[in-house]
Design goal:
The chain is an alpha+beta fold. The protein folds into two domains: about 140 residues, Phosphorylase Kinase, domain 1 (2-Layer Sandwich); about 170 residues, Aminoglycoside phosphotransferase (APH), C-terminal lobe (Aminoglycoside 3'-phosphotransferase, Chain: A, domain 2, Alpha-Beta Complex), CATH 3.90.1200.10. Helix content is about 40%, strand content about 15%. The chain contains 14 helices and nine strands. Strand 2 and strand 3 form a beta hairpin. Helix 9 packs across helix 13 and helix 12 crosses helix 13.
Length: about 350
């Protein structure tokens, strides 16, 4: 989503997050309209793309939010931030650099005792529905710590990662080692009851979107093969754990409590082999030039079945919803990986 597919990200300011392209690319619909999690129309979403022209009297710091945000959501930001400043006894500063973001507004903040924190307000979207629950479950091991959370507002008060530079500053082979270690720590099974959805729900959601875009499929056979794996792979997993689903080097920040901490998880329950794919897609040049060795090396570091990682990577390259379906790069990769 690329950053589920495009590996372009500036070194982050503290807890500055990457673009999770799912929000930008697809028309999301959320659940009950509460707080910032209200539904919006396609017209409102399109209007929100022209943030600088439509914000009117809204303070400048809120106009720095990412492209693709619906105007109605943006217009509510100042009031919601003021409410959270009182509720959580924080002073909120300017928005952090969100040029790579499209699903949240993130700002530096300070607690009453002077400790630096980060305030994040997430737009409602299918992938990120249980981000707060996931952060509570992992409880800082190895994610950034959630200090306060409000699901109705999509609001998170987070531990500040300092210096906060992203893992992208390391060579990709070193990124492999760090991300593999983090994923192995993340893969734990929550006890019942829990809110987390199965990975098959995400695959069904993607299938619906890809099917709706059938007129743009460049290779019907390849896309249908990918869609078939979206259906089959979740049902044949040898293990099921809580997945991050969007873990790549842009979502790993240098910190003081630990050398590296995970931000921006999008939790689903499912096949650990799936969780290898996001980092692989963010190493696009290496993946395309030598897909077999790239996938095999990372699967070995993770201790998961390399063939399943191969199949998941093919399925996503072939059938994941995307704006750039006609550009050919992902079709070429899918044909290289086709089983």
């Amino acid at each position: 989503m690329h950053d589920r597919r495009r590996a372009v990200e500036q070194p982050a300011e503290p807890n500055g997050r990457s673009r999770h392209g799912a929000c930008r690319r697809r028309k999301r619909r959320a659940g009950p309209a509460r707080g910032l999690a209200a539904r919006w129309t396609d017209q409102e979403k399109e209007t929100g793309r022209h943030v600088a022209d439509c914000m009117g009297d809204v303070e400048h710091r809120y106009a720095a939010v990412a492209l693709g945000c619906p105007a109605r959501w943006l217009e509510r930001l100042p009031a919601v931030v003021r409410e959270l400043e009182g509720r959580w006894s924080i002073t909120v500063g300017d928005a952090l650099d969100t040029r790579e973001a499209s699903c949240s507004w993130v700002a530096a903040a300070v607690l009453a005792d002077g400790r630096p924190v980060v305030l994040k307000l997430g737009m409602p979207h299918m992938d990120g529905e249980h981000e707060i629950a996931g952060l509570r479950f992992w409880d800082g091991n190895p994610t950034v710590r959630l200090l306060e959370g409000n699901e109705d507002l999509g609001a998170m008060l987070l531990e500040r990662c300092e210096p906060g530079i992203t893992l992208r500053t390391l060579p990709e082979l070193d990124q492999d080692v760090v991300i593999a270690g983090l994923l192995r720590r993340l893969w734990r099974s929550p006890s019942e009851p829990h809110p987390f959805r199965p990975l098959s729900d995400l695959m069904a959601h993607w299938t619906d979107e890809t099917m709706a875009d059938a007129e743009r499929w460049p290779d019907v056979g390849i896309v249908r093969a990918g869609l078939q794996l979206f259906k089959e792979l979740p049902c044949t997993t040898p293990a099921e754990t809580l997945l991050a689903t969007d873990l790549h080097a842009g979502n790993v920040l240098r910190a003081q409590r630990e050398p590296w901490l995970v931000i921006d998880p999008k939790p689903f329950l499912g096949d650990p082999a799936y969780d290898a794919t996001q980092h692989l897609f963010n190493c696009a040049a290496r993946l395309r030039s030598n897909p077999g060795d790239t996938i095999g090396r990372f699967a070995d570091l993770l201790g998961v079945d390399g063939e399943r990682v191969h199949l998941w990577t093919f399925a996503r390259a072939a059938a994941e919803p995307r704006d750039d379906r006609e550009e050919g790069d992902w079709l070429t990769l899918a044909r290289q990986l086709a089983p």
